[in-house]
Design brief:
single chain, alpha/beta, Rossmann fold, 5-stranded parallel β-sheet, 6 helices, globular
Length: 161
């Protein structure tokens, strides 16, 4: 049984994330979405809220689980008995950033390779940081995030549209 981990902050979850999650779920028997707890950052959403939103988004996919993790990715991958790490690439800049991380992860755990998925062209410019910036200026983000995220933001007074 093949298992992959798709790690990230998912703050917030974007339409690009959802596309990559669905595609990766079709490639592996089991996909674990690992929501990173990064104490160095001040997130827009709590870890619990990000996990909750992701669980709602993937509820129709029986082979996807969502949980949070802290610490080294390779340790989380090992705990999940995963064979692969899935990372999305929007641009060559993402590749330059991700490749050394993938190589370091492989050096620490040769049982799990990193699989890079190219983002669909329509999501190549969508990032969580771009969505947060748009939110800062109260711009419409509805085409960049899933309905679940938009609804959560409205319920919590983060967006009015």
């Amino acid at each position: 049984m093949s298992t992959a981990v798709f790690p990230g902050s998912f703050d917030p979850v974007t339409a690009g994330h959802v596309d990559l999650i669905r595609r990766a779920a079709g490639m592996f028997d089991r996909l674990v979405i690992g929501v990173l707890v990064n104490s160095a950052k001040k997130p827009l959403f709590s870890t619990e809220a990000r996990v909750e939103m992701l669980r709602e988004i993937v509820r129709d996919h029986s082979n996807i689980t969502v949980c949070s993790f802290e610490g080294l990715l390779v340790e989380f991958v090992e705990q999940q008995h995963a064979d692969a790490i899935v990372r999305g690439l929007r641009s060559s800049g993402d590749f330059e950033y991700e490749l050394p991380l993938a190589q370091a992860n492989y050096k620490m755990n040769q049982k799990a390779d990193t699989v890079f998925l190219a983002t669909a062209p329509e999501y190549s410019y969508v990032s969580s940081s771009a969505v947060r910036e748009l939110l800062r200026y109260q711009a419409d983000i509805s085409e960049y995030v899933p309905e679940t995220v938009l609804r959560y933001m409205k319920e919590h007074g983060m967006v009015s549209r």
